[in-house]
Amino acid sequence: MMGYLVEGQRFTHLMRAGLNSEFRRLKAIEGGVRNIVYQGVNPDVNMQLPAGNPAKNNSLLIHMSILDSRGTRTNVCSIPVYVQPKNVSANSTLEAELSAIVYGDNSNLSQYAAKGDISKTRLTIQLVASRLNRQSVDQSDLSLEKRQEIREHLLATLVSLPVREEWELLQTALTLEWVTRRRGELNEGGLLKSSRLVDQVAEETQKWSVASGGVGDDLLTLTVQSGSNILEAVTENGGDISREAAKTVVTGATKALDQILKTKLHYQLLDEGPIVRDSGFTAVYATKYKPSNVPPIGSDGARFILPSNMASLLAGQVHGNSTADVSCYQVHLMTFRKNPYTYGSLNEVQTEVPSLTVYTCDGQEIIVQNLSRSEHVDIEIPRKMEEVEPQSTYTLQKDQMMLHQFNVTDRHLEQSLHIVIDLERDIKGRAFPVAAMISYQLSPTPNEYWYKKVFDLHDHTLQLFLPAGRFNETGMYYLALVDANFNAGKPRKGEIRKRNYGLKMWWGECLYWDATGDTWSNEGCYTKPSSTYHSTHCSCNHLTAFGGHFSLVPNDLSTINIEDFYDLNENPVIISFVGVIMCAYIMILIICCLVDRHDYKASIIHLQDNSVTDHQKYEITLETGARKNAGTTAKVSVILHGEEGISETRELVSQTGQKLFNRNSRETFILTLPESLGRVWKVQLWHNNTGTSPSWYLTMVTVKDLNTGHMYFFQCEKWFAVEEEDGKVEREIMALEGDLGFKKILWTKGSQYFSDHHLWGSVVTRPCYTRFTRAERLTCCLTLLTSYMCLNAMWYRPQTLQYRGEFGLLDLSWHSIVVGILISVIVVPVNLLLVFMFRRSKLRHSKTKSVNEKYKSGKPEDTSNDSSSETSTVQPIMTHSFLDQSLVHWQSLQEWAQKQWEKRVQRSMSSSESVKPKRDFQASEDVSSGFGDCLSQGRTNVTSVCSFQDNVLEVKSRNTVGVDHAAESKETSEESKANCRSRPFLLPFWFRYIAWILCLLISGGCGAVTVLYGFRFSYVKSIMWLQTLYFSFMQSVFITEPVLIIVAALYTAVRYTNDTSILDDRDDDYLDTDSISEWDKASSGYYSNSEQDEVARAIAARQRSRYLRFARPPQEKQLIEARKRTMKEKKVYALLWDILSFTALFTLLVVMAFGKESTSPYYLNQSIKSSFNGVGHRSFSSVSSRSEWWAWSQSALLDALTWNSNQGQQKHLASGNSIILGSVNLRQLRVQQEACGIPPKYSSIAKHCRYDYGQTSRETSRYGSNASWYTYIPEGELDRSTVEGRYGTYGGSGYVIRLNNTRGEAYPQLRSLEANDWIDLQTRAVIVEATLFHAATNLFSSVKLISEFPATGSALTLTHVTSVYLYKYITVWDHVLLACVVWPRDTSCSVD
Predict the structure, then answer these.
(1) Is the distance from CB of 329 to CB of 360 less than 8 angstroms?
(2) Is the pLDDT reported for residue 1045 higher than 70?
(3) What is the dihedral of CA 673, 676, 682, 688, to 10 degrees?
């Protein structure tokens, strides 16, 4: 009987009943296990069947049997049916259909359960599970969460069903296996319920086994499979399951498997075979033994060897009952593919996990623990590899030592190290013995090593085993493989000079599962030397679950020439570099000291027109910019404009003849006046445009009222030059008031910080007004550089890495860049400390002369007094001599009274009155164009009157005014002091000596360490050291220092946006401010001169006053002429500079173009072409058809690619001079085959058309039978260049075949290609590609042999050979060429 049904479709079967005790059983087979779908006495059965086996056309075999009351079964018939999988209807979804079956009171599952039809309830669960198992998450609309929810509901329903008969137990086990088959769709709740179910099945099995007399094989298989599914689900979903739930599930599942095995063995005889089940994730092995028989116990690669005295061991270790029968014992071995104990240390175990439990024959557990060392249990734990792990192959040269560097951590101290070395076996000749050496931190030497083992000459597999505890220290270790005799003796004929070997290194550890602590532990277990790469061998003093830790040892390879151990490696590179640096430092230090002495301006300059009788004093500071040619040789004049008057013209010159206003300098002058100008709101400056370089760039002017302490800031940042900007040499600068703005402060402080605080650049641009001298800056730079050298040497000293590059200068790598940058950052704190000590240490000024020695004539010494010059030194305008008192008459008294009246009127005016009316009121009449020497309106110059009595009154009046003015300005002085920034903290002067000592100690110590380490460096390591030193230096110059400066400037600009006092950055300690007080003290002896001298001084003062009164800036006509002259000179200099630059650039261009010129590439190209064309064979240029190309490739091509025509490896061309790098490739480019658009009557002539090669016509689809030969590879994956042919341009894609490495393998390969029509009518080009290296000329050659097959059917050949220098810089001359290439060539300049 055969019929076709649909899954879930009901059918009625009529069966007549016999005896009342008879019943019928129907079974359906799926997966080899019979499923009981019905058992009972009802002759009419309605049931639903699951889908059939898809592998057998969805077939299902129904067996019908009859059992009598004694259990005798009679098979009636077997009916095959075909049950098609039920598809989801068009108007529904899988989720909706399954929900209708599973959820709700009206669902099939609920209705069957309510009716008490347990059998149909289980069948319904099987149907739902079957549909879920057939479709994955990606193939249906059911989400993973919904699937997990349905499975959990099915398991909950299955748990609630009772087991009343033995066949229901089997049905429950089968249903459980179906529901748990998809491990990833079991959530935490589902796992807990499935664990409870498998435990229930095991208990019910023990119960029903008493009546049936054993456990059926189907029930055992289903239970093991269900338990395996549950355990595998825990390993896959370990991250989504809580620790407690995972522990409950794993413990329950393993206990259930152990229980059912115990029940099965209980009814098994001693001599019966073992129970073996393998469910994929879990493999079980159970059997019985006599105590005298202790064979190895193994399953699925895992193996246990119990102690030989098992009888005596069992007699005293029966748990709970020492009198139990131990005439036999049973063993349960369960092997898990992965670690199921996910709630422990999951990453500790990389092997399978076998678990062995021993019981007595009556089922009592035997605790095996605390065995003596001689009674240990030996265990073999396999390691299943998911993929084949490649083995690294190395070549050991007889004259070299191979160093494999590896790291040992604290965790490795508890593990054993396994090393397996497989030497090449097929060697011809006399081999040399190999020795393995291990050292700590430093590479081993013939006399210094930590571990050494010499292997026999005939050994091909060398094994090293270092047990746990053998390593005592963590850090870097070296494994060295070397000739055992260290290349001793003379070379002998037939001696092997190299041996190929494969290396495997791994850390191993034996672990057991500690159930009490829920962790993996190694206590009581140790790894045996017999462990292999695929299996861990352990020896333990107890029985439980075991696992093995396995981790490959990453190692870095390097080599050392054996001769280096016997010859000192005295590398002069580093010691020469250090010597050059020190010599350069000494020479530059001398220059810096001379420049520092020249720039030293420790005293304030008193203007020669000052008078000791003047009450008011101003300190004027002018800062010259750091731009090119910013200093001036011209004479600078100044006029101060205040709210209460205007000063007379003053020339800013030094009485000692010192050159002022140098580039990036700061000059401070003391200007005295009879009375205060009030608030200074403008400064008027100009120069006379004389000297060799009159151009002047002024950045800042600071005026300080020494009487009140108030400071005024005037920011300029402009040129006083006829050839720059607007061409002016006179400027009026307004005082800065209020909010200066972020941008202005950032620009001002930023430019100042870059010239003063950039350590490397400030050696040249250092302002002359700072206490941090050039010599000190240069010493700090030396300290930085030597620190870089030392740290780089210390970094590379223990390194034994194989550096890239073998010829000349090494290629740059990120390793060098990162190391250089890190070292530069490390030294920053030391640099900041030294700079801070130099900058903040007070200066120790030399003792000054006494007042009487310094002012012998009652005034400052005058070293340059030339009466014939307009700028000759003259005496002060005002004196207190008897003769000078006659110069002022009663008119001075009137002027004084008028000025006092003006002050009182101004005090009564509103504070909101603008400054400009005051300025106009005072300077509108007597001051012409802003130039003059009057102090107030209507005032007459005091030197124009020659009355002795008037001068006396003037002096008295000035004293009175001074008292009033002091009282008046008291409030202003206090306010200025409150607003003034606090001066920086200064260290005692002796801190400067400490800084010098530290610099010398650091520089000397670092230099010595660098020389000591670098003396033993190899050439390669020295170059790497120079590279990292270069990057450390560049990091400091262009990144670290600028970043610190920018941060400081930004902070200053943000912090002091509204504070004008930030512009005052003068070093009070640097200037000798005592000169101001000395000037005041000198006035006490200024009256002791004779009247004749005083008359001469008065006349000179009058002449000086007259000269200054008419002193004016150069006229516009003079400036125009000067501008024309200066521009001509500038153009001449620019022309000369362009000629010199062009000459230098042209010289460099000629050297670069022809310095490496050689005829070698041409002759090498010709030689290579002749090699491939063939000598005495068919020439490549004569190939004219496909058959001729095959004949050429199988003869001349193979002759050219091998050293000889025998079976030698493909290494050289036939000439023997060029080495073939990599493999030789054949690349084919094809076109598509299309239908020809021709009239039908000519279709028999040509059915397909194949056009010329192009981007649109090229073929990319696979053809032929061999997947690798006939598969198209695009340009992105192939990485080939475009080739120009006669008939087209061929890109870098195509069908590529790599020729085998020997002639014996390449020839049949070409023959096979020819036989399989690799080249056909669609082929348009075949390119033979090879890369060669010619050691004699250091040339790399790219060879492309192009064979074009146009649509006409012929063949045309073309040979492309290009030879280039990839390693260009090897010799000294090559390095000279490199210097020419990197030499800065930006010499362009612009001339207006």
Answers:
(1) yes
(2) yes
(3) 0
